[in-house]
Amino acid sequence: MRAESRAASAEADARRCAGLDADLKVTLPALPRVASCRNVQPCTCNMPIPELLMSPQETRRRVDICLELIGERNERIEELEDNIAEMKAIFRSQLSLAADQLAAAVRKQQSSG
Question: What local confidence, expressed as pLDDT, does residue 95 receive?
Fold first, then answer.
């Protein structure tokens, strides 16, 4: 089950990467035309101009960093899921041991009483 979720997560990340690649190809070539247009109204968006004119290499670098962070996050999630599974197993064994000890104490009390 966990392997399936990892595979699904990896596929989702790959789709996200492909989508970002497609967005870069569509939006970045259009930027120089917008920036060179003389009839451009002043920008009313909250995004600073350097962000709008960012080079494709810088955008790709940022995308790569984001994807690396996503990968690290996914690894951390897997570690935490493994830790939780291990804690559950420990809890179940302790619970079973406590139940066995209780049953033994009850049997001992019944046989002596």
Answer: 97
